[in-house]
Amino acid sequence: MFRTKTLIIITALMVSFLIPTVAFAESDVVTFGTAIVQNDQATNDSIVISMSGVTPAAEGSPYNAVLVSSNGTKSLNLGEVEVVQPVIQGVVQATGNINLTFDSSSEGYDGQDLLSTYSRIKITNGSGGSTAYSDNIPANAAAYINGIMGELNTIDEHLNEALANIAAAQSATDVDEIKTSTASAMADASAIAELADGLPAHATAAAEVDVEDGNLAEGAAGVIASAANISAWVTAAKATADNDVASQTSVAVANIFVDKIFNELSAAKNGWDANTDGTISPSTGEGGSDQARASAQQMGTLVLEAKDLPGSETATVGVGGASGGGSVLGLGLPSVG
Questions:
Q1: How many CA atoms lie within 13 A of 225 on its CB side?
Q2: Is residue 302 within a helix (H) or strand (E), and if so which, with residue range?
Q3: What confidence tens digit (pLDDT) does each residue in 163-199 have?
Q4: What distance in Å separates the CA atoms of residue 65 and residue 81, rounded to the nearest whole number?
Q5: Whose CA is closest to 318, among 223, 208, 235, 205?
Q6: Per-residue pLDDT tens digits for 132-171
Q7: Rg (CA), the chain
Q8: How much is the pTM?
Q9: How far apart are CA 296 and CA 34, in angstroms?
Q10: Contacts of 205 (CB under 8 A, 6+ apart)
Q11: Helix orientation angle between 289-299 and 189-209, rounded to the nearest 10 degrees
């Protein structure tokens, strides 16, 4: 009998070691969804709100969504938001979903860059009522994000001009015209690389403002990787222009190198599907300016919780937004790292 009880105890102990232990946080924060700024007709001119598990608003007092600036001096009414309660097996559920897109089809839309002005959102009980759900990006993080956006805008201006000039070089039939257009295309290469090289500092600084914000961290990583790609591709294009196009006497050979430059500049602007999986991620060897911008938008993700907004704040950092790997020969794929 004693030996039987001992075996039972030993077996129970062994089983207890084999069963995974699940730890529960004492006070898990409940999140109900997100509000993410996107592009519609212009940069950062749209916002998409997606929520679930929301208790329906009181009758006659529907929820209302409002964007607010960090210092509380500006606001933008996004309009009423409807809670759609799903019906499961004929039973209307107690909570529902909110899906609202504010874009060029919405009342009050004026094409403004929402991220440049607003870093807070609140879902109120009726227009002007108490706050039911909200979130905010810290003012300093918002300043860094907008610095990134401003620098990307300047990078795009340079890249668009460079692409127009290199397209002219592609269509030229005289070798001197090819050289002239190529030189014009690469005139701002150093400025583009310098701007791209400055992006990681702002991305890192933004993430450090709130180290617990996963969207800030993940978005910052995307900006950093894409910025390195931009710099590397543009630098490689400039080297090709200086070392290979400038010395050519053959139109045919010059065109091969011009196509190479076009590929690298296009990748710097639009990214490159290096692994041919059908998507371009903000990662080493893939992300360009477009992906860096999407990552910066991710950094500005607002995660809605059942809480009121904190007191207004003003940024204490000043971030300027407009400061001043090679590829295989021919039509080869740009590569970084």
A1: 20
A2: strand 302-305
A3: 999 999 999 999 999 999 999 999 999 999 999 999 9
A4: 7
A5: 205
A6: 999 999 999 999 999 999 999 999 999 999 999 999 999 9
A7: 26
A8: 0.85
A9: 15
A10: 140, 144, 317
A11: 20
